[in-house]
Amino acid sequence: MRVISGTARGKRLKAPRGTDTRPITDMIKEALFNVIGDNIVGASLLDLFAGSGSVGIEALSRGAQMVIFIDNHIKSVNTIRENLSNCGFKEDYELYRNDVFRALEILRQRQIKFDYIYADPPFTVPGIFSPFLAAMDDYSSLLTNEGNLILRSPRKMGLTVELNQLEEYRSDNYGESTLHYYCLNKEVIRG
Fold first, then answer.
1. Do the Cβ atoms of 151 and 179 come closer than 8 Å?
2. Residue 115: other Cβ atoms inside 10 A
3. Are 65 and 43 in contact (CB under 8 A)?
4. What is the distance between the alpha carbons of residues 166 and 149, in angstroms, rounded to a whole number?
5. What is the CATH number of domain 26-190?
6. Are 51 and 16 in contact (CB under 8 A)?
């Protein structure tokens, strides 16, 4: 696993030890950033269930203005901290060890908005995906009007959550994973 492009290009990234995390492959990460394109420059990104921090670090390397990393496991937080240091990032990010659902409420209270929210819940806890997506619908105010939620899920998992604020506009399969792209429902933006 490495940083694909930008100021930290080629830097190797560590993954937390154990089977609790399933790091995003370089191929999937490259496809994700091909979809985002140059829109990441100057953007803000929230990396939920951050694991190794690979997606947020890639965003920083490509010119994101701010990245907030959230993970509940101390091994992951320590790995992210080490990866950020090894890539030379000393600012433009915040890193928190917290439950993602609690963190969403804290971020809403801080009135922070993100251009991108990337979420990679653990594949070992399949029951988390639908509640998480429902929570993100409730916390859609964390997105800018043009913001995107990108959710990585197991390919064979059907996400049948009824959404009011968000709508899925794209999904791409890569091996055992699917990336789901959501934006704010047009009715929500109009107010």
1. yes
2. 22
3. yes
4. 9
5. 3.40.50.150
6. yes
Residue 2, both tokens: 């490495």
Series of mean pLDDT values for 10-residue runs along the chain (191 residues): 95 82 86 96 98 97 98 96 97 96 96 97 90 95 96 89 94 94 80 55
| Gap between the Cα atoms of 3 and 1, Å rounded | 7
Q: What is the DSSP letter of 92?
A: S
For 108, the token pair is 């809403």
* Cβ pair 48, 118 in contact under 8 A: yes
> How many other CB atoms are there within 10 angstroms of residue 72's CB atom?
18
CA nearest 150: which of 185, 188, 178? 178
**Per-domain residue ranges of the chain:** 26-190
C-alpha span between 14 and 188 (Å, rounded): 40
Output the CA torsion 179→11→147→81 (10° steps).
100
